[in-house]
Specification:
Blueprint lengths: L1 E5 L2 H29 L5 H14 L4 H24 L8 H7 L11 E3 L4 E4 L4 E6 L2 E9 L2 H10 E10 L2 E8 L12 E6 L3 E5 L4 E3 L1 H18 L4 H36 L2 E5 L4 H4 L7 H5 L3 H15 L3 E4 L24 E3 L6 E3 H20 L8
Parallel strand pairs: 8-11, 11-12
Antiparallel strand pairs: 1-5, 1-7, 2-6, 3-4, 4-5, 6-7, 8-9, 9-10, 13-14
Helix pairs in contact: 1-2, 1-3, 2-3, 6-7, 7-10
Length: 382
């Protein structure tokens, strides 16, 4: 849960100095860890190596512990990416670059607080937070009534202090219990696409035309700003990119909320296509590459999944192969069944309709079969 802080000038200066100091200390600990232990420094190793120095630098006990843990977690993530092959094979340029120098932390990277150095006063809507200039006890925060209710009920664990575009935020961890999952009466098939972001088997359509038009307008403005080649132009481009990302995230939140609400009201489950790796499998024309790369299908699927868990709605992923070319009535599958992007017409039985709706129906039918196998009792041994 993210809340916005409203510090005054003195408090903002103290928070800024704290963030810069802890990230500078994280860089120093990272360099020392890399020199002494390579990529394998543990928490115990770094405590004996850097804890005294961090305390002498002015950090509190908990702040020093969090800096050490951030460094250890960063190297653990790097090792996991290397094992998973995300940085290329042995000797690849990207992998060599990542392993040849210490991990660096941004000067305004988020810093972690626990309940010993951060406390909340929900009635007054203030927080008491540790800084390099002492404890700030009356830093105001604002959030919606629903967010405040979730904070009071479910907040548990650590919170991150974040500075973004000159504004201060606290990202608090909330442990929200999942609702008990019900047995679905049927399924809603959801076909995700670029022109239509989500189309359900019921015929509901969430068009991506407005988002696509917005992105094309942003692309033209981006080209104009890039032509200036100034430092301020680069800063403006980063700011505009974050704004575009927030806009797409808002649209995905709205779509996922609607789909989950319909499924919960009708006591049905949600069936999605398993689209992992689709960008590597599908090739498009050069002028369509940017459009495909900016297609936020994974985020939409993640939003639907977590909202469904919170509402107790079952979610299942099915094989997406030929869902847009298969006739749901007779099963005939061929490219000719889809004469255009928007239309479907079966060459065998004559079934016709919007192509994305037909794909959603096929996704729903596959979910019906898959759910039977998922819930089939184990065979009784002979």
């Amino acid at each position: 849960m993210q809340v916005k802080l409203l510090p005054d000038a003195v408090q903002a200066s103290a928070l800024e100095r704290t963030l810069h100091t802890v990230n500078n200390c994280a860089n120093r600990v990272s360099a020392a860890s890399f020199e002494a232990y390579g990529l394998k420094g543990s928490i115990r190793d770094l405590r004996s190596l850097a804890y005294g120095e961090l305390k002498a630098y002015g950090l509190g006990a908990q702040a020093a512990q969090h800096v050490i843990k951030r460094v250890v977690d960063a190297y653990s993530t790097l090792r996991a990416n290397i094992r998973a092959g995300n940085l290329g094979g042995e000797g690849s340029k990207r992998r060599c670059k990542a392993t040849s120098k210490p991990i660096a932390f941004r000067s305004e990277g988020a810093h972690t607080y626990d309940d010993r150095c951060l406390s909340w006063n929900y009635d007054a809507r203030t927080v008491s937070i540790w800084t390099m200039d002492g404890r700030l006890k009356t830093v105001r925060f604002v959030c919606s009534p629903a967010a405040l209710k979730q904070l009071i009920t479910y907040r548990k664990g650590e919170s991150d202090l974040v500075r973004r575009d000159g504004k201060w935020f606290l990202a608090a961890t909330c442990d929200v219990p999942e609702a008990e999952q019900y047995e679905p009466r049927d399924w809603i098939g959801v076909d995700r696409g670029i022109a239509n972001l989500a189309t359900t088997s019921d015929g509901g359509n969430h068009s991506g035309r407005r988002l696509d038009r917005y992105r094309r307008w942003r692309a033209r403005k981006k080209a104009e700003i890039q032509a200036k080649r100034t430092r301020s132009a680069k800063q403006l481009l980063k700011k505009r990119a974050r704004r575009e990302s927030r806009h797409a995230t808002h649209i995905n939140h709205a779509i996922s909320k609607t789909v989950v609400a319909v499924a919960q009201r009708t006591e049905r489950g949600i069936a999605l296509e398993e689209l992992q790796g689709i960008r590597g499998r599908v090739t498009v024309r050069r002028d369509q590459r940017a459009r495909q790369s900016s297609w936020p299908f994974h985020q939409l699927g993640a939003f639907i999944a977590y909202k469904a868990r919170r509402a107790g709605v079952p979610v299942i992923e099915v094989d997406p192969a030929y869902t847009s070319q298969r006739c749901p009535r007779c099963g005939h599958t061929t490219k000719a069944n889809r004469p255009s992007r928007d239309t479907f017409c079966c060459r065998r039985c004559g079934l016709a309709g919007p192509a994305d709706v037909v794909a959603g129906v096929n996704v729903r039918d596959r979910a019906r079969s898959a759910w039977v196998f998922v819930n089939m009792p184990p065979p009784v041994p002979a």
